[in-house]
TrEMBL record:
Cofactor: [4Fe-4S] cluster
Name of the featured protein: Acyl-CoA dehydratase activase
Tagged with keyword Iron: yes
Region forming the signal peptide: none
PANTHER family tied to this protein: BIFUNCTIONAL PROTEIN [INCLUDES 2-HYDROXYACYL-COA DEHYDRATASE (N-TER) AND ITS ACTIVATOR DOMAIN (C_TERM) (PTHR32329:SF2), BIFUNCTIONAL PROTEIN [INCLUDES 2-HYDROXYACYL-COA DEHYDRATASE (N-TER) AND ITS ACTIVATOR DOMAIN (C_TERM)-RELATED (PTHR32329)
Residue span, ATPase BadF/BadG/BcrA/BcrD type domain: 3-250
One Pfam family of this chain: BcrAD_BadFG
Annotated organism of origin: Thermatribacter velox
Keywords: Iron, Iron-sulfur, Metal-binding
Amino acid sequence: MVLGIDVGSRTTKAVLWDGKSILAFRIEPTGTNMKEKASQMIEAILKDCGLGSDKVDKMVATGYGRQQVDAAKRVSEISCQAKAIHFLFPKARTVIDIGGQDSKVILLGSEGKVLDFIMNDKCAAGTGRFLEMMAGVLEITLEDYGALFNLATEEVSLSSTCAVFAESELISLMAGGKRRESLARAVCFSVAERTVSLIERVGGQPPFVFTGGVAKNRGVLQALEKKLKTSLLVPPYPQITAALGACLLG
């Protein structure tokens, strides 16, 4: 039995793996104390399965806060993502991972080996945080992006690459009479364009797999598929792939 825990800046994910399948998983906000949250998640997922800690053969930690976890092994999120995606989609060549605070693109070889990767972790643009900020301006929820994307009838684009300036630009466009659905679609395309730039810089090739919390956003998914002119593979639970990879590397 292996427990994989991915301590991210926004959410912590835990997966319990029995060697063949996922027994249970949890996704919760990380909060301000990563060490305490990791301990709570470990205790909770074992309780979910009616197991004691003595039943876990190994615990593997990954993610931004992996050093805060008292685990037998700590592995980078890049390695964990690669392992999990090759396990789930053996033919995948590029992983697009967009989380709350960063985004990354990982180029995989035919055996799932990491050939190259690139990260955007210095700016909110192109991340889940950007979508949250723009949703606040538009007075919509994150779930609204998908429906509004499909209702848009006018092509609108955001020229600002900085999240702060994009907020001001969005407010200006609203004052100019642009409709909310068109602006929501523009926000999705802004994230997609920034992501495609990363894909091009790393030489990404299809098949593409989309992971992270933003993979659940239907608007961004559609915008990426239009920009890349191909369908993207999305795991059933795109937020837990790094934690699953930690289990597989255990």
